[in-house]
Amino acid sequence: MGFRRLRTTLLAAAIAAAPMIAAPAQAQQRPMVWGDSLPATLDPHAIFDVPSQFILLNAYDGLYRYQANPPQLVPWLAASHTTSADGLTWEFTLRPGIKFQDGSDLTADDVVYSFRRLLAMRRAPAAAFTPVLKPENVTAAGPLTVRFVLSSPYAPFLSAMPLVAIVNQRAIAPHVQGDDWGTAWLSANGAGSGAYRIVPETYQARVALDMERFPGHFMGWSHNQRPIESVRSRPVMETSTRVLALLRGEIDATDSYLPTDQVERVDRNPRTRVARDESMRVFIIRMNNRKPPFDNRDARLCFAHAFNYQGFNEIVLRGLVVRNAGPNPNNLWGNPPDLQPYNFDLAVARRHCDAARAAGAPLDREIEIHIQSELEQTVQAAQMFQADLRRLGVNLRIVPNTWPNITAATAQAQTTPDMWIHWVSTYFVDPENWIGQMYDSQFHGTWKASSWYTNAQVDALLRQARGSLDQAERDRLYQQATRQVVADSPDIWVYNTLNLRGLSRRVQGYQFSPVGSGGEMRLMSLEN
């Protein structure tokens, strides 16, 4: 039996062997089998990436949520909010009668606990709030009223609100060990109010997650007459195996990075289709600016001109993406309208390489580029880059790796790879999500800022922009910062993506939003 066939057979066996989740008798439908990646932990305050958004959207709720495409920020657990004239005091009024999945009431105290937990843990989702919010400045002003007092104005505050899951402090409290805030327990359990409940008994980290519908979700189910009762998330690491499992009906959805060379194959199958949606996800090749040779601007410009953007975007990806000149997606405000991207030109690249070598940059050493093995595009981009750099006398070694391993390594400059490839997706809709957290040096130690770029002028512009309450001024400041970042060339920006997800035709009601990549289960139904 061939390797690919064996992998698919094992996947089918694993799905069949997983215990069925109890559902009402009238709903005897096959579960939804979601073939996308799972996060390294289920604790929504401990991680900040695309897989974690699946947990955030389905098992938890926040005060506000993004819906639709283009993404619209709508009240969720909160019914409304007010802001003081100076932008420092924010008050959110909760909807009455909201229940956690264990039946207990969700109150302002739970919101206060959730934000204080997030800020105390200081893990990835906290980065949007720690510069301006202290734990003691989140208080309950009433049973359904939460007050936030910021230390300085922070324009993206409301835009970032959907990042924070509201957790059930009573469910977590018995499992707290020392000062861990219960994260060891919550990494494999649920404590939310979301539309789907985590089934801890069958959970296997990054391998298998089962969820069952929560009938008492505060939004109700009148919008969906045939909701999905059971969801099984079963990641499939190898691209070809993942696509084959979809074609055979063993999974109902792939991840949202479907390789373009598989699009026609999925569309041709009568049981499957490809959902194509304009996204706000930037494909980026990082360079560790703290490690030679990338501490030299000429070396970085050499690499920026040595990547064949048109060949990758138009030939490898068949024109299903749009060239991106800088760190922000093209369809977001804050970009200079005349920003020019770096072009593929090996003669220009060679001149910059020569200048870097003359300045002592060690371009003759082997340089490692880490790719995400399960995502074919990262492999394709690295292989193409490797071939063109070889023509410049640069030896690029491709290192297979995984998202959790790479992002853990980016906590320190010395352990961050020379180069690595990934996407920056939409976690909240503001330039702060992209350029703000990627190139302000205060975010060093997070995967978003893993180029370890430092420019005092850019720091000042980004900090002024996030503190201004004047939208026109913010737009001007972000444009100015973007021009400077692109001139310094700390990274290589390739494209703004079209989201491509393979789906079974039995999946109905799939609704894409750039925040969450279309993974909100409460909106979908299944045809058996």
From TrEMBL:
Domain Solute-binding protein family, first and last residues per copy: 72-441
Pfam families tied to this protein: SBP_bac_5
InterPro entries: Peptide/Ni-bd, SBP_5, SBP_5_dom
SUPFAM superfamilies associated with the record: Periplasmic binding protein-like II (SSF53850)
Subcellular location: Periplasm
Main location: periplasm
Keywords from the UniProt entry: Signal, Transport
Residues spanning the signal sequence: 1-27
Family membership noted in the UniProt record: Belongs to the bacterial solute-binding protein 5 family.
Protein name (record): ABC transporter substrate-binding protein
